[in-house]
Amino acid sequence: MIRLELTKLWRQNKIIPCIMLLLMLMVGSLEISIFTQGQRLSDAVETSEQTIKELKQPNPFQGTKQLLPETKSTISLLDKQLVALKRRDGTSLREVGVKQFIQKWPMLSYSGDNIIDFNLHSGEVEATRKELVYLQHHQLPTMLPLTIRTNPQTALTNNVPVFQDKVFQELTQRFYVKGWEQIWLWSTIGGIMIALAAINIFLGDILANERDSQNDHTTWLRLQHYGRVKMVLTKLGVHLVLSCLMLFTALGIFLVYAWLRNGLGDLRYPVQAWALGKKVVSPYLWLTATAEANYFAPLQITFIPLARYLGLLGIFGLVVLFLNSTLTLLINRLVRMRLLALLIMVALPLLGLVLPVSIYNPYTYLNGDWVVSNYLGYFLSQRAAVYPWVISGIGIAAIVCLVLALIPLKRKQGGHFG
Amino acid sequence: MRNLAILSWLRVKRRGFWLLIIGVAIVTGAAFFGVTKWQLAQENSTIAARLERGSEELGGQLREIPPKPAKIPKHMIGYWHMIDAKEQLLVAMHRGSQAKTAGNEHDYTRWHVAMLEASMQLDKYVPNGAAEFTTLDIQTIKRQLKRDRYLLATGQTVINSIYSLAPRAVLTRLFLFLLCPPILIFLLLGLNWLWRDSFDTKTHQFLLLHVRQRSHVMWENLVSTIVLMALFSLICGGTTGILAILFGGKESVAWSYPLTPQTSLGVQAAILAVFAAPIVWCLTAGVQAGTLLLHHISTRIAVLVIVSAGITFLPFGISLNPFAQLGYRLLDWQQPLNIWALVSLLIVAGSLTGVVNIFLNRRNA
Amino acid sequence: MVKMNFEIKDLSFAYRRHPVFIEANLTLMTSGVYGLVGPNGSGKSTLFNLITGLLHPTQGAITLDGTVLTPNLVFANVAYAQDSSVLYPYLTGRDHIRFVALQHHVAAARIAAVSEQLEITQFVDQRVSSLSQGQKQRLMIVLALLPEARLLLMDEPLNGLDPDSVMIIRNLLEDFKSTAQMVIVSSHNLDELDKVTDQIIFKVDQGLQFETVADGAEARYAELYHHARPVKAGDGHA
How many structural domains does chain A have? Predict the structure, then answer.
């Protein structure tokens, strides 16, 4: 039966095109990241040069043409930062960044007027400092360009003026141009949902295609002593295994491509996460600095290695794939038109990209980045990590779908799966 | 053609496809309304919170101000004007926030005007002084003030971003959603079921044998699909419209609502209406060609969605690319549609129809 | 018998790399009933599809009275009773008949007469999906008979028919002998074919061979395709 299923899917030309589609999306994402990073680095160089030029102008209020020693020191750091930026040297940029962020008034050469100290309120500056210290500790180069570490609250809490929008974007937008970093990026932008939609284009009708048009191919199978339960379970197994196989094959090929194109990156790279922690006393001088550093209290921003993040994300992805497989069977069971079943299964994951974030929105719990980084814990006002609970919840939902897909339906005449 | 149309109607009727269209249209319309309401509620609470935070900061600053002297020294007049402007701004932001929280859109519009006026005053004394509390720079303030005064004079309310539940606004955005190429192609894959049902089975041989010219089958299918899409849009729009009237809140938006200084909502909707039939024609031809060329339905869906999304969102030649015009407007509906993109749309649609005709005539059944 | 000129000239056609016809030729000069015989998968239906333009030959031409068959000419002159899978399963027999009748401007009286003749009136309002194979077959033949085309192609019309239906079709084919129509019937039921015609087109290798078989199609079939056919008891043969 499993062999028959695999043969059918192979003959229907589903496996290779699905892998190709996934691969195309992955490679496209990497190429866009590399392209936009190149553009942004040029912009950052330009803005830095402008900022340094302005700083070097003597202050008319001081009544002297000499620069103050603090200004000289700031300019010297900004100059170093500019050189590192021009050389695309992540290590030097990190070294300068650490020096900048252990000062009482941190500043990046392209950070605009007062954005860092006056316009950010939900722990961004503290997080950036911690990240830089982490990078320094592990002797890792920073991603290019050096940016402020933001979080989902930034969009709601910042009061960056409209005219500084572009500068703010330059200051915060990151570019994930290495292999492992791309997976991290996908988890933050709903990549799991897009991958599910792509898989479902090919496997979303795995059961419904048995009833294409007016034909019921399952009657033949039933004659071979393959009952409904056995058939659904076989289809589930094939769907799940193939989903994983196709996804990981595409991912494997992508990683080889990324390795050749721009490298895989370092698995020790720090990823922002939230965990229960002690109150932070900010080293910075502005009045609200400490309150802002403790914005998520009792949770605190912390950093975990990318390897751990990706491992947890992998397990999460597998559970979501299991849910997708059981949900596919359930929808295929309920919707008898093959095309409709297929379109529903493609549209369902994509719906997650447009629905607003809310505790009542089930897709909120499928946001891999939030679950793994435990931002969801803050969102749900929890002190403990929510990861195991979410994994269990998704698993239970998947089992419920499976049970519903297995329950026989009453039909007027015999029935297809009765 | 007439007989083919009657046959298509019989097929739609016998298969219950019309019921399915109505059902999906109602669900889509209701979902669109629901999601917009949800998004709007979140946006409104963010706006209220931002205003409240700005007014708190402002209040904090004003608390440290010494009492205003009875007789103001000459050199301090400017300073006290600035303080007055800040006080007005504080009141306007606080009241605006309260109005937003209570869902009183007319009050919010009034206070929004007051906030902009106070910001203008403040910016006279401190360049970009209001930006610290409102994030608005002087150009934005001037532009918004002109718009808001017009809205106030015509009894309309402010639309803050892309979400609004005023019937005219939500319907215009619904049609932008339906006509966004990757979404439309997805819809047409379903609505053009008649073509797929014939050409993915042997039944097309019955059709082809009983027509004088094969192109008749193609044209009839094109017209049927446009009619079905119109039916779908009407029901979808009707559902959203009724829900917006019943549960949409207190927003008032007229067709004259200025989306930009150059374009009103009515003009935007009219241009959209002009684009509707050609874009449906074009993408239906795409689906027809896809069905004739790509045997496997999954590959077909993947190719059609990716190609349409690619053409829509590639950042080249946006102004004359009709797909980009319609696609980007979904994300930024206040920008006007370039009517000249219609020319390229008609050329693409005509060419695609020609290609389908060639495929159909050369097809080995 | 009426003079007609149906000609297949140097016809070649292949499914990918599998050639079905290589420069096949056939000329039929008079109206009447002709049998088309060949083993399974030899290309009988393919020939009908080529005549009706559903398939395009890689080379050669098919003409009727000297004119190459175009879709327009096929519409006006050719009727094809093909495999019933071309019917829409969720439409009724009447839906199909109405469409064909309107397309070809067939009078209501003729519809009634043909429906009566093939005894389909009892099930004409049922959906095709609920019909038996024989009922579908009769419906297909009705649809092909309605336009009164000069050339009528019937692909395995006796498949799945009960004895009564076989008799109806046999009588129908007998009637065609005296009309101005040319009928080509493909069938594996050589006994039945023998009863209505002795003019047989054999599909041999990648060509067509037209013969008048005085001793019956079955014997000639065995000779052509090298089948040693078992002799049935009571056949009267040694």
Answer: 2
